[in-house]
């Protein structure tokens, strides 16, 4: 049981490392848990689908915590009761070693340390504080994760809002007749924001699981307006504008490829992927 418990702890730490500290990676455990929540949210009402992103992150963090507690409990259980000293008034013969192992693991990971059950073996006296250290590290990592994700979500929503604003102001219709400098400023700005969202999606793939109720800030609903800009740019009589339109189109194609490779798996061209993206993020109707 000691080996199995140690393996569980290592699995958790490896998953945390790949999810939080590997720039382009994501642990299999956290990815599976978040994807399961995402799939389940498709069958819920509007409110449930809107909370899918936060619920997915809670599921991942909860999964890490549960497996860490179980892993250390298995390590302690293998050595109970002989390897531990019980406080006066506690008779080990009348207690469940399984419950005591879980209890000791919980108070250790939360750094409470009541002292009613203490290890006797030297190596157990060393590894027990290690669990507290790892528990504190997990809490810190979880907080850092949340603080990293929300700026990426903000950038995605800013892009969506800008695309909606451009659409409502008729920018695509006026783009072919715009002056070179004005059109360049518009297209370059949108392209940079699309590329930023692309990078964010690779580094913080969990942001995909957040649905936006307001269509003005939902990239799944407004990304088609970026495609409108690329089509309008090709109608311009200015070569530079057409070139910048091609750059935006390529940025959208790259973003679509990432969406399809990591989440949608529908294949086909950008139009098909964008439509699947929109359907997958729909809040007010079943996806």
Automatic annotation (TrEMBL):
<dbReference type="InterPro" id="IPR013099">
    <property type="entry name" value="K_chnl_dom"/>
</dbReference>
<feature type="transmembrane region" description="Helical">
    <location>
        <begin position="133"/>
        <end position="153"/>
    </location>
</feature>
<dbReference type="Pfam" id="PF07885">
    <property type="entry name" value="Ion_trans_2"/>
</dbReference>
<feature type="transmembrane region" description="Helical">
    <location>
        <begin position="51"/>
        <end position="77"/>
    </location>
</feature>
<keyword id="KW-0812">Transmembrane</keyword>
<keyword id="KW-1133">Transmembrane helix</keyword>
<keyword id="KW-0472">Membrane</keyword>
<protein>
    <submittedName>
        <fullName>Ion channel</fullName>
    </submittedName>
</protein>
<feature type="domain" description="Potassium channel">
    <location>
        <begin position="82"/>
        <end position="147"/>
    </location>
</feature>
């Amino acid at each position: 049981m000691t080996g199995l418990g140690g393996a569980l702890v290592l699995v958790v730490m490896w998953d945390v490392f790949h999810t939080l500290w590997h720039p382009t990676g994501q642990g299999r455990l956290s990815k599976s848990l978040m994807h399961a929540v995402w799939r389940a949210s498709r069958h819920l009402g509007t409110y449930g689908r809107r909370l899918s992103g936060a619920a997915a992150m809670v599921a991942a963090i909860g999964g890490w915590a549960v497996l860490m507690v179980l892993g250390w409990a298995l390590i302690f259980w293998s050595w109970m009761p002989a390897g531990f000293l019980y406080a006066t008034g506690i008779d080990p013969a009348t207690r469940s070693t399984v419950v005591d192992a879980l209890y000791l693991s919980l108070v250790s990971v939360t750094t409470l340390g009541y002292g009613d059950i203490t290890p006797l073996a030297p190596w157990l006296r060393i590894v027990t504080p290690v669990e507290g250290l790892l528990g504190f590290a997990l809490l810190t990592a979880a907080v850092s994760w949340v603080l990293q994700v929300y700026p990426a979500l903000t950038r995605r929503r800013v892009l969506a809002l800008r695309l909606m604003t451009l659409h409502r102001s008729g920018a695509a219709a006026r783009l072919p007749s715009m002056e070179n400098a004005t059109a360049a400023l518009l297209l370059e700005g949108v392209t940079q924001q699309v590329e930023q969202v692309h990078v964010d999606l690779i580094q913080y793939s969990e942001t995909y699981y957040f649905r936006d109720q307001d269509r003005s800030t939902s990239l799944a609903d407004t990304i088609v307006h970026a495609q409108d800009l690329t089509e309008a740019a090709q109608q311009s009589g200015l070569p530079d504008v057409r070139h910048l339109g091609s750059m935006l189109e390529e940025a959208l194609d790259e973003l679509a490829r990432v969406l399809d490779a990591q989440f949608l798996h529908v294949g086909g061209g950008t139009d098909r992927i964008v439509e699947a993206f929109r359907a997958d993020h729909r809040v007010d109707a079943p996806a």
